[in-house]
Design the sequence.
């Protein structure tokens, strides 16, 4: 917040914002377009995403992409195969048109099979929920019993690349990769106007509602920095559930900061995410001397609580911009420990390392107490994971010293 903003009266701040109302035009790509999925209220419904992906993956459907999207997804899995599961030639030279696509075959979200090439692909799709029990192991057992001679590709699809419980047999695919692949296919192929519109709508939904759109976050932060006082006044005096939700999270984090559990950064937070740091991680990844990290702060990492509708979860993230060699070395060790199969360990702007599950808050008379309790659970889970990580890093440091 600049000095000018500090010295403005409330009325002057609001006038200044109204005179610069065109700054909101930058949000037009996210707010100003018709979207079929929004109209049908299915933008965050897991089963509808599985239906859409099943349609796109079927080369024999009427989307006009043929096998291009299907082949590109399989290629993505082969390129990121660090365990040698797939023979490159056999897999990429499959006849993709020979595959039949099923939805919910024996509860598997998307099941693709080619009897001609004796190859099958199972995709378990998780957007808001986590996998249940030994779900993935159970599906694999079914497939091995029913198709013992078939080569298999087992895919765990999530927004942020969550690790599957059966990491030995299931590969990870993210919705970010789906969006990247589908966007490329849309731009390269000549599609019918109605199909092109539907795919464009679907890409908008993925980038806005399924994965965190970093560009959207940057635009919102830019607008907020220019008109912080006016926007704070608007948020403070409006009455809605979201602002009350945010107020409760903010007050809980401030209370925890007062107790010394963490260092809360309200100026770097919004109603959608709440940033905090810890003394122990500050020692592990010391602050920069100038505020030029990936977030434009002195911190090369951050914890944050993400809010989507009435759901919360915590995230630990590294920022890779302008990081000195000593801190980048520590970051590489962290990535090696917790994301060993990560293909982009360098030259990244943001990298999420670990997270909590989503917590859902139901409306009730004791909603504020539930939100506060949820924030405590999220912070405790993140600090537990932090402790485990620092223990591993210390063990490596001690072992290197004694060698």
Sequence:
């Amino acid at each position: 917040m600049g000095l000018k903003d500090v010295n403005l009266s409330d009325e002057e701040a609001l006038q200044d914002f109204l005179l610069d109302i065109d700054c909101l035009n930058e949000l037009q790509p996210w707010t100003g377009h018709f979207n079929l999925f929004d109209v049908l209220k299915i933008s965050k419904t897991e089963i509808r995403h599985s239906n859409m992906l099943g349609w796109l993956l079927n080369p024999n459907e009427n989307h006009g992409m043929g096998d291009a999207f299907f082949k590109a997804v399989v290629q993505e899995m082969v390129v990121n195969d660090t365990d040698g599961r797939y023979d490159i030639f056999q897999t990429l030279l499959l006849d993709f048109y020979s595959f039949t696509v099923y939805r919910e075959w024996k509860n598997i979200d998307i099941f693709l099979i080619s009897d001609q090439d004796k190859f099958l692909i199972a995709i378990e799709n998780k957007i808001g929920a986590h996998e249940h029990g030994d779900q993935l192991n159970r599906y694999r057992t079914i497939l091995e019993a029913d198709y013992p001679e078939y080569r298999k590709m087992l895919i765990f699809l999530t927004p942020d690349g969550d690790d599957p419980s059966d990491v030995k047999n299931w590969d990870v695919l993210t919705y970010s990769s789906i969006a990247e692949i589908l966007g490329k296919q849309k731009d390269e192929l000549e599609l019918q106007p109605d199909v092109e519109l539907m795919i464009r709508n679907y890409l908008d939904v993925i980038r806005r509602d399924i994965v965190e759109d970093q560009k959207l976050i940057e635009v919102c932060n830019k607008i907020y920095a220019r008109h912080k006082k006016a926007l704070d006044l608007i948020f403070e005096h409006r009455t809605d559930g979201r602002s009350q939700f945010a107020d409760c999270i903010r007050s809980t984090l401030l209370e925890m900061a007062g107790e010394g559990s963490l260092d809360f950064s309200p100026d770097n937070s919004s109603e959608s995410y709440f940033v905090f740091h810890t003394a122990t991680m500050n020692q592990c990844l010391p602050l920069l001397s100038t505020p030029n990290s990936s977030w434009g702060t002195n911190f090369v990492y951050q914890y944050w609580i993400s809010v989507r509708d009435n759901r919360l979860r915590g995230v630990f993230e590294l920022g890779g911009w302008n990081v000195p060699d000593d801190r980048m070395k520590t970051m590489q060790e962290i990535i090696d420990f917790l994301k060993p199969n990560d293909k982009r360990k360098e030259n990244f702007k943001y990298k999420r390392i670990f997270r909590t599950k989503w917590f859902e808050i139901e409306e009730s008379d004791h909603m504020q107490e539930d939100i506060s309790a949820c924030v405590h659970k999220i912070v405790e889970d993140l600090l537990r994971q932090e402790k485990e990580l620092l223990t591993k890093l210390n063990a490596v440091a001690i072992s290197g010293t004694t060698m």
